[in-house]
Amino acid sequence: MRPGWQRPLDRRTFLAGSAGAMGAALFGGLGPEVLSASSAPPQVAHWDAGLVRHMLPTVSDSRILLKVSFVRPPSSPPTLRIGSATIQGRMNDTAGEHWQFYATNLGAGRRYSLSLVDGRGAALCEPWSLATFPPVDARPERFRLLYFTCAGGVEGAYRGIGDRTGNLPTAIRNRLLRRALSFSPDAAVANGDHIYWDLHQWQGANPGGLSARGRESNFDFANSIFGTSNELALKAAAGPQIIPVYGADFRSTPVFFLQDDHDHWDNDSAFDEGVFFPVPWFQLQLARATQQLYYPEFLPDRDRPKGLPWSGVSDRGDLSESFGTIRYGRLAEVLLYDVRRTMTLAGPSAVFVDSEVERWLDARTAATEVRHLVHGPSNPWGWSAGKWGEWYPDILDSRTDELTTAIPKPYWQEGWARQHDRLAQSLGANRNRTPLVVSGDLHAIAIGEISRAGAVDLSANPITTVLSGPVGTSPGGFPSVVRGVGAKPSRHVDLVEAVAPLEEHGFTLIDFLPDRIVLRLFRWDVNVEPLEAIDTMEPFYTTEL
Fold this sequence. Notes:
CATH topology: Purple Acid Phosphatase, chain A, domain 2
Number of domains: 1
Number of helices: 9
Helix content: 10-25%
Number of strands: 30
CATH class: Alpha Beta
């Protein structure tokens, strides 16, 4: 796919072939027109989105990467204007609906005025502003980070308090995120499960896939993604789970998207009939294509090796798909790492993250030039729901309905826990700071303190661990329903819970200050609270580290 402008494909021509005919019969008879209508962007108050459907930026101290989709392909190649600079767009699909803009050599700690125009200079949306992060040697007084997880899912119904089916309607997810944005975070982390369209292993009421056609996946596994019916299928499946949730609300808030299991189009379960992680090739291409279309990759960082897996990939320049850094001067550094893309099944020597990634994490954890450091894995620390693809060996004992390590967990790898314990030891060893891990995945809000990980004694410098809160989870998606047990402290660790896992919707705000970290947890109970309560949400739990 060339980065320049291409004439949009004629839809009837696109659907004419045999692969296209499969695309026309997508999703239990729902045509692409119906599905695209459900992916309309939310209305943005006091800002004219024009032709923009969704807009998601990320930044560093010197770069901006922007992903944009349009209601219809612009009549000519779009351009991003940043101050006096002009950035030519790169087309990310074959229809001209999705574009990216990558600006480098920007000034650190500077708020820029941005605008999108077509080839004739006509505005495609109202201008807006976006700031780069401070210089790496700056000493800012505060950094506020928004953290959430599990914002994806095919839209369900909401008829009022206590009456809903499926995932939260996207309008409610958007409302939750708008409330979070009202606290003016400097950046946001969306930690995993941005989409749910599992192709083989879904554990819910409709096994196999999330389509109405059961185990039929609606994809041609033997074909490429772009320029085939698979491109249309991907947009129809993923677009309605992302576009209306975010719209252009994050246009002035840098966001960091970390992929997890469902973002690789399957659930992290394993059976005798099939184990679908490590990621099969076709689903890996789907995951990469979803990221290419909808949300930004990670920008380079001077302290992150260029050669980590899925970093500096030839067709993506110097971006990383799976490992990212949020560096806010000398005040805070957040290390984001996907545990699905490089996981291995090698028994005692198995890992979730590649050995070079582990070395990078160790080096940054030991470094002392940054006041606060956070680990942000896509797989949670401290708690277990008996899932296969966890760090921990816990499994549900059907006789007691409790988690246990006395029963072997099929296909679980001992090396995963060993790597966890090595990282825990690294976190606890740096006495200059309070170790903090913030994750998602478990569809819960929680906070606790780990004083032991396996044989590693952390009592002298315990690790604070946080489950950041889900945004879109369905009633049947909470662990207590899907797994038969809610998230519980793993027996592999000693964990004291300040807030035991709550299966409610919410998010976490983290304020980094020179002398402390302030954590604020937010919750909204769809079963007892009206929609209007979202607009006045306040933290139900606050703590300082």
